[in-house]
Fold this protein.
Amino acid sequence: MARATPQRVSDVPRDAIALLKQDHRMAEALFEQFEKADEEEQAQLAERICNMLNVHAQIEEDILYPTAKEAFEDEEESELVAEAEVEHSTAKELIAKIESMTPGDEAFRPTVKVLGEYVKHHVKEEESQLFPALKRFKVDLKEMGTRLAERKFALMEEMGIEAEEAPPQRKKTPARATTRAAASKARPARASSARSKSARSSGRTARH
């Protein structure tokens, strides 16, 4: 693969949780693209998925998990890290299988799909349990985010991996804007109804 010029470290979120969530959303987008792709595109997407997950797992194991272990005082939170490490091990086994196969192999597509489901479960647990615990124990997320970003792009440059473009964020429509829009649609409807009633009334008067 041609050596790539990755994004600058300054282009990514400085907050550790924001950076890792951005990676999660990118992985989800790649798995979705894989499901819709033809065989040739699937080969390229599978390679991108494996490369990205390998880098993501490495920075978590090098920085996130050791920092979390040091910060967490309760056994319950410490177990979250241990479980995440076990899940990484299984994911790496699936990645290795995919890297050894071609799209023509019968197990290629199912294995990528299983990896996607496994990653989805892992992401859900991290975002709903591990990340909140980091905040509770007052971990310096900005400092860790800087280290994660530097390590991430050092690995990408070393491996010649291109930076994935961040998926567009889903815009949430403010509640007030939605209410105003609904009210705006309702006004013409009421006006139309009133004109209709007026027309019927005029018609009855004319007949009398």
Observations:
- Helices lie at 16-36, 39-71, 75-99, 108-136, 141-159, 175-207.
